[in-house]
């Protein structure tokens, strides 16, 4: 199957009153896809094209990414979650499936915990949890380097973590898209989000046992930072949690394995949904 790395021409787009940029296409129950740090809604193009026949797919740019404005001052994870809640409110969406990648996964978990009435079920892809001291030190150093020197300081290392050594993998189009998005991101927006990402791996540690809905924790076998052990641990704590590990891929499996990701999301969400008011 031919995979498209561009959002469909038929997509509807807009901006909220607080300047969140969004795009929407498809039919069925709403599925919100949340991107990670340094990306924007276009990174979900392969999945949007594959999922829009089954879901009303909504993608948006997190604060300071893509075409969304960056609020003044420091931001916390709850600020990014509030952005999602505000977006759904303005679009008159009362409940939705939510799937987030990387930092988007942290937002998805936070949304499911704090707004269970709005979350039909949740999938956290390549999400981090309870880093070791060494892992925490490494990501905080990357955050500091990024704040001091900008994206180009660790661009090559980032792409290697995400895809493997450049030239030694088969995902050139996916890597080029990720590189393009990284180089186009608002530097301050990226730095603020990365700081939140670097410091939020334990924010849900004492609360996952209260997650009330179905939850899938899905990562790649070759992801050195969002490890299979993290996803399995989160799934073991969440009352309705399950885990999945995709072999042969790394952190950006949403770009390198969109068909497998879309199939897994479709199966999970169609099989695991809270009843809506109309059901």
Q: What are the low-pLDDT stretches, counting only 5+ consecutive residues below 50?
A: none
The main β sheet shows up as:
8 strands, mixed
Topology as a string of helices (H) and strands (E): EEEHEHEHEHHHHEHEHH
Helical content stands at 40-55%
Integer-rounded radius of gyration: 17 Å
- Strand residue percentage: 15-25%
Note the gap between the termini: 35 Å
Number of helices: 10
What is the count of β-strands? 8
Strand order of the largest sheet: 1-2-4-3-5-6-7-8
The 3D shape can be described as globular
Structural class: alpha/beta
Mean pLDDT over the residues: 95
Question: Explain this structure to me?
Answer:
Helices cover 40% and strands 16% of the residues. By secondary structure, it is an alpha/beta fold. Helix 1 (45-51) links the parallel strand 3 and strand 4. The longest helix is centred in the middle third of the chain and has 17 residues, at 133-149. The radius of gyration is 17 Å and the shape is globular. The N and C termini lie far apart (35 Å).
